[in-house]
Please model this.
Amino acid sequence: MNILLKKFIQNPLKICTVKASTNSSARKIANLINNTENNNVIEIGGGTGALTQFVENKDVTIIERDYELSEILKTNYPQYTIKNQCGINYLKEYKNEYGLLASIPLIDKELKTELINCINNHISKNQIKWIVNLGYQYFDPLKGINFKNKKRYITLKSFPLEMIWHYF
Model:
């Protein structure tokens, strides 16, 4: 059984997805990230690392709150910094400029509000330069983010359909 599905069944409030993302989505996301000038990339909700596998020439920090998944990430991606903690708490303390990759498609409303508030605080300080968010929502999953631009891409090679939202 897929480790993400197994963990979701065990504790659906702790794991925010049921499957790893497709290579098609990962390549599209990597293309968006690899073409940015910003070197610091923070990924929250790293899971198994399916999204970061194609990111190149960036200083990547993956935040994963599940201990077992963070250990898998440390083994599979020794070139990245892996943190086993809450992504929102990590962002609240982060002081440098960065781009954000988020893959928490089943995030609850309270956590989403906290994340949006944190991001908007960083936007006001010109700290965060862009966000790439992967999820299953057709409509804007981070409505309320204060970036001026956003684009949505749909990955047709996945089920359920994966939506990539790019805020900048």
About this structure: The helical segments are 3-10, 23-34, 67-76, 87-93, 109-124. The radius of gyration is 15 Å. The first helix runs from residue 3 to 10.
